[in-house]
Amino acid sequence: MRSKINAFIAFIIMCSLLLIAAQQLISYGKKEMVFVKPDPIKFGATYMTLNNPFFEIIDSEMRNVIEANGDIMITMDPQLSLKRQIEQIHYMMDQGCQVLIVNPVDSKGLIDVLKEAKQKGMVIIAVDTNVYDGNDFIDYTVVSDNYHAGVLCAQHMMAHKEEANILILHHQSAYSATERIQGFRDTIKDYPKYQIVDTIECEGQLEKSMPLVADRLHKQRDFDVVMSLNDPAAMGAIAALQEVDALDGVFVYGVDGTPEAKILVKDGFMMGTVAQYPKKMAKKAVESAYRLLQGHTNIAEEKIEVNMISQKNIDQFSLEGWQ
User: Fold this and answer.
1) CATH of 146-275+310-316, one of 3.40.50.1110, 3.40.630.30, 3.40.50.2300, 3.30.420.40
2) Which candidate in 115, 191, 233, 312 could, as Cys together with 209 as Cys, close a disulfide (CB 3.0–4.6 Å)?
3) Average pLDDT estimate for 37-51
4) 86-109: pLDDT as tens digits
5) CA separation (Å) from 15 to 2, 20, 72?
């Protein structure tokens, strides 16, 4: 009996030793795993506003890639407030974000805070809008060919109208908007039959452009073309014109190629929109961020082509989603 007990005790002791050894191996393995695989990379993103489906698509596409890689993305919405966007960038610094993706509320207003972020070692990616004088602290910029978007709208208008009185819907602090409007202005400047009668600052927001255009219509109906910096502003203008039964004969142009704008083009309520490619922009932004984190430095600014959408080619584009 005693020999059986001794054998049982020996068996228990052996099992205990094996368990201890196994725990040590597991612990060692975990330490090695932590050493080999660093913590997830933190991406921070702040856009001028998420009250625009264009930025929602960019954010969603980037998040899909980032989270598929096991990394983290923090998205914040300054709601067109420069002060709030600066605060958000400071917050992302405090959170230890290694990458900052920024679409500036004001192309000149973020210079100081972005220089500070760069000094902290952050990779800084600008999307959709350039940052003024940002060569020293912006690592990569991806934008649409915004100037050409304005040119395309002007060329389409001139091909379908021998003369025009034009209302401009603008967002002065956004570099992308400024480029679009400048492209439009430069294209018509040598043709006196095309006159700009007024410029309205609407920040590219439907809920702002609609009452502003309505007020302009109440005071004076002296325009037959609306050139909008983007589709939301254009849709606000269309709503205001429809409200007073004045849309007939007015050419309304936008930039984005949103599903809603494409439907309006197909149905004849909107003369045209210039297609941007937010999914392609998002992909390029994330790919460049990872390359920069890996030590690549020869990454230049990229411009993504744009295309005019009108009734002539609307059937070539899906009405259900973005390009």
Assistant:
1) 3.40.50.2300
2) 233
3) 91
4) 999 999 999 999 999 999 999 899
5) 20, 9, 42
